[in-house]
Amino acid sequence: MKSLESPRKHGDASDGAMAGAVLGARLVRMDGPAKIKGAARYALEHRPENLVHAVMVQSTVAAGRVRSIDKAAAEAAPGVLLVLTADNALHLATASDWTGAPPPDRPYNPLARDVAFNGQHVAAVVAETFEQATEAARLLDIAYDEAPAIVDLDDPAAGDGMPIGMLTAQWGDADAALAAAPVRIEAEYRTPREYNVPIEPHGLIAEWHGDSLTLREPSQWLDGMARTYAEWFGVPFENVRIIAPYIGGGFGSKALALGHGAVAAMAARMLGRPVKLAITRPQSFTAFGGRPATRQTIALGATRQGKLLSIVHRGANETSMEGVAVEPLGSVTTIMYATPNLSSHQNVVRVNTVRPGPLRAPGENPSAFGIECAIDELACELGIDPLEIRLRNYAEEDPKAGKPWSTRRLREAFAAGADAFGWSRRSPEPRSMRDGHDLIGWGLAAGTYPVRRTPGEAKVSILADGTLEVTSSSIDMGQGTYTILAQTAAEAVGVAVENVAVRLGDSSLPRAPVAGGSQLANLMTGAVHKAALAARDELVGLAINDPRSPFRTLQANTLLVSDGRISSPRGEGPALPIGEFLRRIGRERIEVLRDTLPEGARSAADRYKNYTTIATMLSPTDGDYSLHSWCAHFIEVRVDEDFGTVRVSRVVSALDSGRLYNPKLAESQWKGGIIMGIGQALLEEGIVDRRHGRIVNNNLGDYLIATNADIPDIEVISVGIPDPHASVLGGKAVGELPIVGVAPAIANAVYHATGKRIRDLPITLEKLV
Ligand code: MCN
Ligand code: MOS
Hints:
The chain is an alpha+beta fold. 24% of the residues lie in helices and 24% in strands. The protein has three domains: 44-148 and 198-280, Aldehyde oxidase/xanthine dehydrogenase, a/b hammerhead (Aldehyde Oxidoreductase, domain 3); 294-451 and 621-768, Aldehyde Oxidoreductase, domain 4; 455-612, 2-Layer Sandwich (Aldehyde Oxidoreductase, domain 4), CATH 3.30.365. Helix 14 packs across helix 15.
C-alpha cells in the first residue's frame, strides 16, 4: 500500500466507467475511499513533535485604536508560552499582491493597532495546549478608543464610493436610446454579504528548520501562497514548502495567504517549535472576507417586440477601509444580450469590514442576479415568454469585445432545458399555477463563466512496475483533479487508469497556477497530456532503439502502447507489458517534465511570475475568440400561500462547459454549484449588528446554508462540444459556472408563483407575506 498522501487506486469503477475512452469516462473520485474511511489526513490533523497551539484574538469594535492590551494575567496562565500583539510581533515585509505588482516598502504587521473592522486580529496567544491558549486568550484585557464606523453599504456615511474606471463599458448612446425607447423598465437589485464557509476551516501548522518554513495548510494555490510567505519573512521562495494533499473546500477563500498564517509562522519562528493555529468558525467570518454586499440599478429600453435598445447599468459593492475588492457587477450584463447601446459603471464603497474576497463566481454571480431578473421583468411587462425574449436578444457574438464566441451552446441549453423541464406547459400569468396551499412558479435564468488560461507544468513518470506517476503542485479541494489527471495520463500513455498514481498538493512538486477562476482542469490536463505523450514517445523510442529491446529487430518506426503493453502495430513480435520491457532494458523509470509555457517565456523569472502571480493569466478575450461557458437553469418553486415559505421543488439545468473530462465529476460540480445557488437565493445573508459593525450570525447554526432537506432532485444536462480554442483538450470552465443564474431563476419563479418581485436576496418569508 502506498502512502495515503498519494491516492492510487480508483474505487469502484462501475457506472459505465470503462465504457468508451478513459478521458471522458464517468469514473468515481480516486481520493474518495481515503476520505470516506477517514484515512485522508487534513492539514490540522497532523501532530508533529513538540507542537504548540496558537489562538487568535479579534477586535470587538469596528473602528478606532487599541489603547492598551494588559497581558499580565494571560502570560501568567498555565502553559502559556507567548502572547503576541502588534508591539512584539516580528518585523515582516509587505508582500506583493497576486498580480505581482511590487509591494510598498513598508513593514507588514498581521496584528492591528488601528482597527478597521470588528473581528480584526489584534493578538494571539500560544500555549502548550489548545485549551490553555483559549483560556489565556480570554484573560487578555484589551481597551479600545472606539471611533464611529461605517457598518455597511446602506450606512448614510458610506456615500456612493469611488469609481472603478477599468470596469466601465459603453457603446452607442445608452442614455439617449433609453429615453427614446418605447418600453422602459428600471429597478435596483441587491445581494447581501455572503460567506465561503468551507467545511474544513482555515488554519495551519507552521514549522521552521533554520531558514526553511514548512506549512501544512489548505490552499488553492501552493505556489502563490509560498511566494507570499517567502516575501513576508525575507527568505528565498524555494525555502517555503506548503503541503496540502487533501482540502475540505475553499470556494475562493483559500487562494491567498492570510494574516493568521503570518502569525502562526511568526510564532513558530520565535518559539523554535511547530505551531498549530486553527481559525474558529466564528473567526472565519472575519479572518478573511466573503462576497461583498452589492447593489445595482438596471434600466432596460426595448421595442414592443422585446428587442433591447439600451442597457444602463450602475453597480456598487462594499469594500474594506484599506483594500479595494471589486465584485465586477457588469460581467454578465455586458455580454449576455445583444444591445446597440449600453453603459455600465461600477463603484466600490468603503465600509468597516474585512476585505471581501472571491466566492464562487465573483462578479458573474451577482451580475446575473441583476440582468437575469431584469430581462424577466421586461418579458412580463411586454407579455412575452421569458425564454422567447432571451432568444430574441441572443448575442451572436461577444457584444463587448466584438469577437466571435469560440463556442456558445446557450441556444442548445435553452432548448434542452426547456424540453426536459416541460417549459411549454407553463401558464404565463403569475399565481396561475397552484397545488392546494402551494402557489407554483416556474422561473428561468441564464448564466455564464469565462475561460481563463495560465500555463501549467507536470511530470509524468513511467515506473519499473509498469505503472504511471503524475506529479504536480496543483490541488484537489473536491473538484476531482486527482481523477481527471489520472484519466488524462492513462489515455495518453496507454495504460489502465487503475495503474496511475497522482500526487498533488505539495509545493515541492512541479509548479501549478491557482485553482481559481475555474481554470485548473483545463490547464493541468493540458500539461499532463503533453508530458504523458512525451513519456510515451520516449518509451517507444527506447523500444525501437535500445540494444536490449526485443522490438529492435522489427526495425519498426513506431510501436503501439495500449492496455499497458507495447506491441507492433502490424502484430509482429511480442506484446510486452511496459514494466517487463523496462526491466529487460535495465531502466528504473522514464521521467518527463513538461510545461505549457509559450516558447521564449521559460526563463526562471518568467516561470516564477507565471506560477506565483496571476500576471500571465490570459483573459477570455485575449486572442481571436471570446471564450465562455454557458448555462440555463429552469426552476420550479412552491410557495406556501399562508406562510410565505419557499421550497425549490424541481431544477433542470443545461450547461455548456465544452468537452467534459469526467461527466460524473462535472455533473457533481454543477449540482454543487446549483445547491449553493439555492442557498444564496433563499438563506444566505451575513447580518450586521449596526451598533458595533459585528457579523452576528457568525456560525453554521445561524448563517444558513442549504441542507439536504432544502434540495430537490437536480437534473443536469451537458450540451457542450469540444472547444479547441478554449483548451488543449477541448474543455471549458466547470466549477463556478453552475452557481451563476440560480438565484435569478428562483426569484423569477417566485414572481411567477406569487406576483411579488423580490429584488434583494435572500428571498425570505417576511419579504413575501
Ligand atoms: N471538469 C471536467 N471537464 C472539464 C472541466 C472540469 O470534467 N472540461 C471537472 C473536473 O472534475 C474538475 C472540475 O470539473 O476537477 C473543476 O474544474 P474547473 O472548472 O477547472 O475548476 P478548478 O479545478 O479550477 O476548481 C476551482 C473551482 C472554483 S474557482 C471554485 S470557487 C470552486 C469549484 O472549483 N470551489 C470548490 N468547485 C469546488 N468544488 C468543491 N468540492 N470545493 C470547492 O471549494
Ligand atoms: Mo474560485 S471563487 O475562482 O476560487
